[in-house]
Design the sequence.
C-alpha cells in the first residue's frame, strides 16, 4: 500500500490476479456455450451464440477493468491517509496501531517493537504523498491487461464453432478445451497458493462447472 505511492515500477498484475481473470472469462463464456442447444442448432444460431459469447466477455472485461481502476484508486487513497496518520502519531504506540491496521495480521504479529520503530522511521522518510490519489500509466496498462485477459480467454473455447461444421462435435470439443483450461488455471493457482497443483486443478474444474450450472439455472 505504501510502496504504491512511491514505486511506479511495481508489477502490473501478479500471477494470482492473472489466473483469476482467466477463470472469470472462462466461466462467462461457458455460461453461454453450455446453454446452447447443439442438437437443434443451424449456422445462424451458432453465429448468434458466438456473438453472444464475444459480447458477454466484452461487457464483463470492461466492467472488470473499471473495478480494477476503482480498487487501485481506493488503495492509493488509503495509503495516503495511512501515511498522514503515521506522521501525526504522537508516540510509537500510536504509530504501531496505524501500521497494524494496514499490515497483514501474521506479519504484524511477528514484528518486534524495534522493527516497528525502524519501519516508522523509514516511512517518515518517504517523500510527501500527493494531496489526493491519482491513477498512473501503469494502472491504465494493468486495466487494459485485465480487459484483454477476460476477453481473450473466450477464443480457445469458441474456435471449434468457427471451424467444425457439426455443431454437436464443436460443442464437445469446446467443452473439452474449457475443462482443460480450467484444469491448467487451477493447477497454476495451486502452485502459487502453496497447494497441491493437481488436486487444485481438479477442484477448479468441479468449482467452475458448479458455478456455470448455478449461473445457467439462475437464468444468467
Sequence:
Amino acid at each position: 500500500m505504501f510502496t504504491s505511492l512511491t514505486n511506479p515500477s511495481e508489477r502490473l498484475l501478479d500471477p494470482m490476479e492473472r489466473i483469476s481473470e482467466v477463470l472469470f472469462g472462462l466461466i462467462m463464456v461457458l455460461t453461454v456455450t453450455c446453454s446452447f442447444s447443439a442438437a437443434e442448432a443451424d449456422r445462424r444460431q451458432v453465429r448468434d451464440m458466438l456473438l453472444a459469447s464475444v459480447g458477454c466477455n466484452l461487457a464483463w472485461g470492461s466492467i472488470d477493468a473499471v473495478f480494477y481502476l476503482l480498487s487501485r484508486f481506493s488503495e492509493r487513497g488509503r495509503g495516503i491517509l495511512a501515511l498522514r496518520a503515521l506522521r501525526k502519531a504522537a508516540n510509537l504506540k500510536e504509530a504501531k496501531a496505524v501500521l497494524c491496521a494496514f499490515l497483514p495480521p501474521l506479519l504484524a504479529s511477528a514484528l518486534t517493537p524495534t522493527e516497528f520503530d525502524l519501519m516508522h522511521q523509514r516511512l517518515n522518510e518517504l517523500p510527501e504523498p500527493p494531496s489526493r490519489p491519482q491513477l498512473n500509466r501503469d494502472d491504465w496498462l494493468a486495466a487494459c491487461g485485465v480487459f484483454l485477459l477476460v476477453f481473450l480467454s473466450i477464443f480457445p473455447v469458441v474456435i471449434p464453432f468457427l471451424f467444425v461444421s457439426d455443431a454437436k462435435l464443436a460443442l464437445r470439443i469446446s467443452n473439452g478445451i474449457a475443462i482443460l483450461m480450467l484444469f491448467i488455471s487451477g493447477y497454476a493457482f495451486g502452485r502459487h497458493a502453496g497447494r497441491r497443483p493437481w488436486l487444485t486443478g481438479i477442484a477448479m474444474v468441479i468449482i467452475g462447472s458448479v458455478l456455470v450450472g448455478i449461473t445457467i439455472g439462475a437464468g444468467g
